[in-house]
Design a protein that fits this description.
4-stranded antiparallel β-sheet, about 425 residues, 2 domains, alpha/beta, about 40% helix, 7-stranded mixed β-sheet, EC 2.8.1.7
Length: about 425
């Protein structure tokens, strides 16, 4: 277990840039990982290396051949990392852009008069895309309401709304507002039990850094991640699509290969940094297990990450050392409840009687980086049902420490006495 090895925690932290110091602020605790995780040092080096190469893919020269090989290697690495023995991976502008494109394509190819299903818990990246594409394709949209108190939507919730004429479905793997994760495999099964040929598209952007990715077990058609939330960098998204979704008519250049989904020349460096991320998971899996296979090490790393982040969020909620946890502070409300096994590396709270932006400013002055989520177009679907105008999002990753949690708890404990 990661928490039992200070040497391993130190080795993990040493692989990330700016793990405890902001280049603009100085020393700080980074609890804003849902807004973008820390970047692997290897990713920084790889990005610089490929940014300097003037050649493009698809040319007959040694540099171009090497770039193509880099991309092919990254796609093979992704197949192992996400356990996707079929289908294809490709890069796009961002996770949001990819979700819009895939949902639009599925809706454009759906039978006339059929239905699209999605949940009220979803991030607007998928929900907005589904609602807009449904309207343009003259389809009907079915909303699956989530449970506001727990932040969950379940397979039975989907099953209660499903009809045989549902042709497209969207699922959120984890909420970036509350950190609550959904059972994608169970929800997909509930959908296919009623509509076996439905195209199922999953937003995995928040989940990807916090546990297992196992596409083969989900029985879905598309899955999207944003690498800047999985220890890489900004500027691109990664999508996986099934063979049958690959074959759908979609936006493409005239006479281009029909299986191609990328637009223009993609940045080889973005693909190369994906390989750095996969290599990191393999390294970590070797540190926490005796596994020797690539996929087995990645699975071991994912299990260790999930267990350690659960340990950290439990310490945050229940207390550590002589510090009371958030649940024992009368001025604190925890979104999703204090006892929620579906939580993934994130605790959102409200301080009674104090606007969340003021709390975030106060914590920042203490060297603790958090973030305000407001009831706007990004977060109102989660906050409005709770009667909240805002909340403080405390999002962590497996390179955070229990000492950093203690620093946060100490600062929040003093809030009622702070002007």
């Amino acid at each position: 277990m990661i928490q039992d090895s200070p040497a391993l925690i130190s080795a993990i932290r040493d692989r990330f840039a700016h793990v405890d110091t902001c280049p603009f602020q100085g020393p700080r605790v980074f609890f804003e990982n849902a807004g973008g995780a820390l970047t692997l040092k290897s990713v920084v080096e790889t990005s610089a290396k490929y940014a300097a190469i003037p050649d493009n893919q698809g040319r007959d020269n040694p540099a171009s051949h090497a770039l193509v090989q880099t991309i092919n290697t990254a796609k093979a690495d992704l197949a192992v990392f996400m356990n996707a023995p079929s289908g294809q991976f490709f890069a796009g502008e961002s996770g949001t852009e990819l979700l819009f494109r895939m949902i639009r394509t599925a809706c454009e190819n759906a039978p006339k008069g059929s239905k699209v299903i999605g949940s009220s818990i979803e991030h607007p990246a998928s929900r907005s895309a589904a609602c807009r594409s449904t309207e343009k394709a003259a389809l009907d949209y079915l909303n699956v309401p989530h449970d506001a108190a727990s932040g969950l939507v379940t397979a039975s919730d989907y099953a209660a709304v499903m009809t045989p004429d549902v042709s497209v479905a969207t699922i959120l793997h984890a909420s970036p507002v509350s950190g609550i994760g959904m059972d994608v495999a169970a929800i997909a099964k509930a959908i296919r039990d009623v509509s076996p040929d439905c195209f199922i598209i999953v937003d995995g952007i928040q989940h990807a850094a916090h546990g297992q990715l196992d596409i083969a077990s989900y029985d879905i058609d598309a899955y999207v991640i944003s690498p800047y939330k999985v220890f890489s960098r900004h500027g691109y998204g990664i999508a996986w699509i099934s063979d049958r979704m690959t074959a759908l008519p979609h936006d493409m250049l005239i006479d281009a290969p029909e299986t191609g989904w990328e637009f223009g020349t993609r940045d080889t460096g973005s693909y190369a940094t994906v390989s750095d991320v996969v290599a990191y998971f393999e390294w970590l899996g070797g540190e926490v297990s005796s596994e020797t296979g690539r996929r087995e090490r990645i699975e071991a790393a994912g299990a260790a990450i999930h267990a350690y982040e659960t340990h950290l969020t439990n310490a945050m909620i229940n207390g550590t050392g002589n510090l009371p946890g958030l649940r024992d502070m009368p001025h604190v409300m925890i979104l999703g409840g204090a006892d929620n096994p579906a939580r993934e590396g994130l605790v959102s709270i409200v301080i009674k009687g104090m606007p969340s932006p003021d709390v975030v400013t106060y914590l920042n002055a203490q060297g603790i980086r958090t973030h305000t989520r407001k009831a706007d177009h990004y977060s109102s679907n989660v906050l409005d049902p709770l009667g909240l105008s805002d909340c403080i999002r405390i999002s962590l990753c497996h390179y955070n420490t229990e000492q950093e949690v203690a620093q946060l708890l100490g600062a929040i404990k003093e809030l009622p006495e702070t002007p």
